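Lab notebook: predicted structure, single chain.

Context: the supervisor wants predicted structures on file for every construct in the current expression panel, including those that have not yet been purified. This is the next one on the list. No modifications to the sequence; it matches the entry in the shared construct table.
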Amino acid sequence: MEMFANQARYDWWGNLITDIPAAVKAGTIMNAPHYNFDNIYNSLVVVFCAIMAEDWNNSMYSFIIVQATSDWMVMFYFFTLMVIGNTMLLSLFTAILLQNFEATDEELELQNSKPKTEFKLRKIFTLKFLRGVKDSVIEIFEVKGKRK
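Prediction complete. Output recorded below exactly as produced.
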C-alpha cells in the first residue's frame, strides 16, 4: 500500500498531475482521487472495498492511469488482494457458522445429566385430581356458608 501513497493527484479541472513536486512548488491546487492510500483510513477503505468487490476497478484504474508503478504491479496487487481477502472472509464466515452449530462436550454432558421431566396436561389433570379440586372448592364454600 505504501507504494501507492501520495502518487495520484489531479488539478482543479480533473487533469492528471504528472510532476507532483513541481506542482507543489508552483502552488497548484491538487485534489486526491476518491480512492487513495494517503492515510490509514483511506487505505482501509480501499482495501475493504476491494475485498467486498465494490467499485474496486475504479480504484485500481486510478492508480494505473498515474503510472507511478507498472500496470502489472497494480493489477497484481488488486487481484491478489481480492483473492486473499475473499478467502479469509469466507473462512471467517464459515468458522463463525460452524461454531454456532457445534455443540460442545460440556453442553452435551449438561443435557445428559439433567433429569427429564415431562410436563403434560393429561398427567396433571386426571379425574382424581379434578375431583379433589372440586371437593376442596365445595368445602371452602360450605365452611363459609355455615358461619353465616
